[in-house]
Specification:
Blueprint (H helix, E strand, L loop, with lengths): L4 H8 L12 E6 L6 E10 L5 E11 L2 H14 L4 H5 L3 H7 L8 H21 L6 H34 L7
Antiparallel strand pairs: 1-2, 2-3
Helix pairs in contact: 1-2, 2-5, 4-5, 5-6
Length: 173
Amino acid sequence: MIYGEKVREHFLKPHNMGKMEHPDGVGKVGNIVCGDVMWLYIKVGKNSKGQRIISDIKWQTFGCAAAIATSSAVTDLAKGKTLEEALEISNKKVVDSLGGLPPVKIHCSVLAEDALGEAIYDYLKKNNLRIPKKLQERHEKIIADIKEIEERYKEFLQREETSGKKQSREPGF
């Protein structure tokens, strides 16, 4: 797979990586097909106009080079933006900021967009602030996807338990 220079740069020297202590909002998303999982943490402050802005942002991602690069890129795009501006950051903007991604890796940029949206949603919900309709709908879809993933995983675990009783789980050489 061929990645552009900006993708390689964000992968090799990621920006804003790490867990944040006492975040104001946390977004967690994943993709059952590829196995990528992203956590995005935000701190919210106010700018000189009194608008809520993302004053700090961090992330942790378990995934491929594209997942790591998109996590890094979305944080660069969102830091210092108002919450409203940050919600306008689409996966296309993430991809464009990286100079493109292979088509098979576009889903990583969608995860990055969703993680940012979920962190903002979490902040708004915790602070009893108005949640924009579009964000609420996106959150509900993500929650439905998570429930489906959990249900599928539960069935997988039950199958594993059943087959494990019939044969040893010890690795063989």
